[in-house]
Design a protein that fits this description.
single chain; alpha+beta; five-stranded mixed β-sheet; 5 helices; 5 strands; elongated
Length: 158
């Protein structure tokens, strides 16, 4: 049997990427295995937990449910594309300042959900924050700190 390969070109965290897909690969596998972007986590593999959340052309997407071929020509952002240890993004800084980084497993997805909210609504209400962050489950129960982080990043006070 001849294996078909598909050349995939997209932008990941500001860098143009081009790679060969081996078949029906999921976006999460391409990001984690081919690009070594380990902030993207797999929890349930069914899109229920939200841990695999990435931004594709600025919109949240479950990378465990997305076939990699669907991102051809698109831009993907993971938490690695927001900042680093020397220069955190405002939302990353706010998560650190409010102590919202408990175990860390859901943090990348929570930060991306928060970024998406603030990009579309710079001054969200508490109800809007809760709704925007609700697709990402947190086993530690740090939801109130996540809310405080978004308020702080938006310029409000906690």
């Amino acid at each position: 049997m001849i294996e078909r390969k598909l050349r995939l070109s997209f932008t990941a965290n500001g860098k143009p990427r081009s790679l060969d897909l081996k078949g029906n690969e999921r976006l999460i596998d391409v990001l984690r295995d081919s690009l070594d972007l380990k902030s993207v986590k797999e929890g349930c593999g069914a899109g229920d937990c939200g841990l695999c959340l990435v931004l594709v052309d600025g919109k949240p997407m479950h990378s465990c449910l997305t076939m990699a071929a669907r991102i051809e020509g698109k831009t993907v952002i993971t938490v690695e594309g927001l900042g680093d240890e020397r220069q955190l993004s405002p939302i990353q800084k706010a998560f650190v300042e409010t102590g919202a980084v408990q175990c860390g497993y859901c943090i990348p997805a929570q930060i991306l959900a928060a970024k998406n909210l603030l990009d579309t609504n710079p001054r969200p209400t508490k109800a809007e924050i809760r709704k925007a962050l609700s697709p990402v489950l947190c086993r530690c129960g740090s939801y109130l700190r996540f809310e405080e982080s978004v308020i702080l990043a938006s310029g409000g006070s906690t």
